[in-house]
Design a protein that fits this description.
Elements (H helix, E strand, L loop, with lengths): L6 E17 L12 E19 L4 E5 L6 H10 L11 H11 L9 H15 L3 H4 L6 E10 L10 H14 L3 E5 L6 H15 L4 E4 L8 H14 L3 E3 L9 H8 L6 E3 L6 H9 L5 E4 L6 H15 L2 E4 L4 H8 L7 E6 L27 E3 L12 H6 L1 E8 L2
Parallel strand pairs: 4-5, 4-11, 5-6, 6-7, 7-8, 8-9, 9-10
Antiparallel strand pairs: 1-2, 1-13, 2-3, 4-12
Length: 398
């Protein structure tokens, strides 16, 4: 389909699913970083899907992965009515308008709508999003990105468990391994863990450390960073309890370390991330088409980093992530997040086409393919989504 059309209907479908052998800590608070291994457990999760229908009969779709939270859903519900009656090909103008609408918030509900618009564009033109972006990569090297360390027994509960799992991931074909440590910020345990993992995988394997803002003081973050230098980490990510937003703190840390500092997962928007770069707060920028206002926002950040001669790393996984990485020169590895020993990636099981971000489906060469079909190139299992749907929000012109 080509030519002008308009958006006539936007729907948000909230659904529930369960993941076996996972659970929450004793306090029971949900969150990506709180998931633990629980033999025989069943972790109930909710995610949401977007559909955008146009007057010419086309449909754009996207199902959220890690941004599919109630908070992000609330923002998407605010934005969805603003799409009605609009020309879906005017993505730059729509991006600008939706960005303004969420000026008082963190923009996390914007990305899935933008991704669905890109899926719609590809389907109307009969080509993949990667081709629309000028993509040139067909396969993406993958690194294993762990769940956080847990205090209860099982899973990643010790440096020995992390080391064993890192060795297994290397043998499985992953191209690198990233540690998410424990939540208490015990720097001595983090140092012991990092050294144990390096010994387990040898010096010829990319190793990364992401404390996920666990470390409580700047001095502890520096001490841990110096061990990153010692063991040759590929990058050191979001160490401090400032939630990784302080330019000056990270600048002072970066000046004293050799390991590249990857920061800005929690900094929203190209302007704020540009200020982070100019202020000297990082060596690499984190981008995510879900978190950073869609494929439109993620590609802007990739080009921003190119202008500064820096690399960009895409956070997390999903079909949109594969398409933007396919069109990005200055990036390295695709993140299969989050996984652990006996712990499935808690992304929704909604694909009816063989697409997977599960470790058991990693090809032998350690690379995943970029989907080639129209739009995002995936087929969603709408029977599963509607059967498990718990909320259905409809916005329509008629």
């Amino acid at each position: 389909m080509t030519g002008r059309t308009r958006i006539e209907r936007v729907e948000l479908h909230v659904f529930r699913f369960e993941v076996e052998d996972l659970g929450l800590p004793e306090h029971g608070a949900p969150g990506v970083g709180n998931i633990e291994y629980r033999k025989g457990g069943k972790l109930a999760l909710t995610r949401w899907a977007v559909t955008i229908d146009t007057a010419d009969g086309a449909r754009g779709e996207y199902v959220t992965h890690w941004v599919g939270t109630p908070a992000a859903l609330g923002q998407a519900l605010m934005l969805a009515p603003h799409l009605l009656g609009r020309d879906p090909d005017r993505r730059e103008q729509i991006f600008d308008d939706l960005k303004r609408e969420l000026r008082a918030y963190d923009h996390m509900g914007h990305g899935p709508l933008d991704i669905a618009l890109w899926d719609l564009a590809g389907k109307r033109l009969g080509c993949s999003v990667s081709r629309l972006l000028g993509g040139f990569r067909e396969r993406l090297p993958v690194y294993a990105s762990t769940y956080h360390g847990q205090e209860s027994g099982g899973g990643l509960d010790s440096p020995e468990a992390f080391a064993d799992y890192a060795r297994a991931c290397k043998e499985r074909g992953f191209r690198g391994f990233k540690i998410h440590g424990w939540h208490d910020g015990d720097v001595a345990r983090e140092i012991a863990n990092l050294r144990a993992v390096r010994r387990a995988v040898g010096d010829d394997f990319r190793l990364m450390l992401d404390p996920a803002c666990e470390i409580r003081t700047w001095m502890d973050a520096l001490a841990l960073g110096r061990v990153c230098d010692e063991v040759g980490c590929f990058w050191y990510e979001d160490p401090l309890r400032d939630c990784a937003v302080s330019v000056e703190a990270h600048k002072r840390l970066r000046e004293r370390l050799a390991t590249p500092l990857l920061v800005s997962e929690h900094v929203r928007g190209i302007e704020a991330k540009a200020a982070f770069i100019v202020g000297g707060g990082c060596d690499m920028i984190h981008a995510d088409p879900e978190y950073d206002m869609g494929i439109t926002g993620a590609m802007r950040l990739a080009h921003l980093c190119e202008a500064f001669g820096l690399d960009v790393q895409y956070h997390a996984c999903g079909p949109a992530h594969r398409h933007v990485m396919a069109a990005t020169r200055n990036t390295h590895l695709y993140e299969m997040a989050l996984i652990g020993p006996g712990m499935r990636n808690a992304v929704p099981p909604v694909y009816a086409c063989g697409y997977s971000d599960q470790p058991e489906d990693l090809p032998p060469d350690g690379c995943v393919p970029v989907p080639e079909g129209p739009g995002l190139g995936v087929v969603y299992d709408w029977d599963f989504i509607t059967r498990n749907r718990i909320q259905h929000h409809v916005f329509a012109l008629h």
